[in-house]
Design brief:
By secondary structure, the chain is mainly β. It is 12% helix and 48% strand.
Length: 440
Amino acid sequence: MTKKHIRSIAFTAGTAALFSILPANGQTTALDSISTHAQEKRLSIGGYADIALTRNFYSDNVYRYSNAALYKEDKSHGRFDVPHAVIYLSYNFGKGWSMSSEIEFEHGGAGGAIEKEFEEAGEWEQETEKGGEVELEQLWIQKSFGRVANIRIGHFVVPVGLTNAYHEPTHYFTVYRPEGEGTILPCTWHDTGISFWGRAGRWRYEVQLVAGLDAFLFDRDNWIQSGSGTPFEFKVANKYGFAARIDHYALPGLRFGLSGYYGQSMHNTYPHDLENSGNKYEHVKGVVAVGALDLTYQGHNWIVRGNVDYGYVGDAATISTAKRNINATNAPYKKSPVGKNAVAAGVEAGYDIFSQIPKLRADNQRLYAFGRYEYYNSYIPAVEQARYEYTKRQRMAVGFNYYPLPQIAVKAEYSKRFLKSQYNHEPSISIGIAYEGFFL
């Protein structure tokens, strides 16, 4: 055997070993894998990405809910997208100190260019080339005192709900992230603060202190989803939030999770007194409380995942009025009302067809036939608030996930949203491909 062949075999084996750190089983979060890998290696580089191609067989007009009959016969429309492309970078300094970062390019990032416009008398103009976002999703420094106790300071994922804790594309069957949680909660929810976490026996726990949500970024269609963001160069932290998560690995392949969030969201704006005309809302707190239950199971050639999330916003009607009455010109706040409550529940199950074919099973190839059902409502109003029935939705999806390797998933699905009878249902077909792993 030549030296070239030996090097080739060593490279292939090493690559497989590094990629295998992130199992596609929904049992290990990328957050834990990053932390573990950073402690095992001086330098770690990895990431994940997903690419999606979709045809939607319903109208994309923004008024399709306010006048559904008018847009019932609209033509279908297509969308190609790179929802997420993420780079992990971690370093182990030694003596229990490590750092990790996660840079995410959403929808291909953002682009711009300067052009000389001859139609405008030769003036230079800034042109937006494309939409998208570039975000620093994680950047933290950690001190580990052992398996049971680690403290992390910086910017990190807030693991409330199944999707936030397990948001990598090999941790769900659908081409896009599960729709219910992704509609009502920030997704991926990431914020700056302090985290204390560890493992003991079959348990994993985490508690976090983070900057509070901003009530003026809540809205009807996405509940508190935008509240963790900021349009400024800094995150307003007049108020604070507390998040916690506990996971129990009850049996091999079976995990139960309980997570939640609590904090005040009113008066967490910039300027601080933006909404306080005459101190009219001085005593309004806008308490946000979210609770979530989830589970994952992998065994006997099945993968099953499920979640239930329920949330509450105190003073929702008052917050909605205050948002609508903001007088600041071009203020980056949302005018639509926020509901008092929101809910999301979903379950998906997939069976590995290739498990019944010895040759493919031995080659570690998998083909999951799956089904998913979810119900969610981003706007459950208080008694005095107006009703908007289109926010109440059910969604069903069926399809396949093919894994030629454990780190690569090729996905295909047919899905359909079912709305109240006065609206039009929303079917679509999607295909996608995704990967997740460490390269170094």
